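pls read this protein.

:::
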Amino acid sequence: MLKSFVKFSLVGASGVVVNMAVYTLAMYAGLHYLAAAIIAFCFAVTNNFYWNLIWTFRGQGNKSTRDKYCRFVLVSVLNLVVNLLILKTLVESFSLDKALAQLVAIGLVSLLNFVMNRRFTFND
């Protein structure tokens, strides 16, 4: 399980890079920070699914790739809701910088995301 978590974390790190790049560009384009976070999520979730499918959880689970993707997106959306609540709280209640708040929120939901995907998406 530790090996899978390390791989999941490395994939997640690539997702953070994708997320933050899209988030920053969307903010630069004038979008509200919550809208920017949702758009960034859409790009990052696809990146993360692909790499988790072919590397982290390769060969695990008998579900079709389509079923795994749907489950992965569902788990990711649930985690996005938690992420947005944390992001909004950090920005509006604690006046944290929006980019830093996004990084903190991503970090806080990472373990929950791993556990849910390991059990629900890539498990039989």
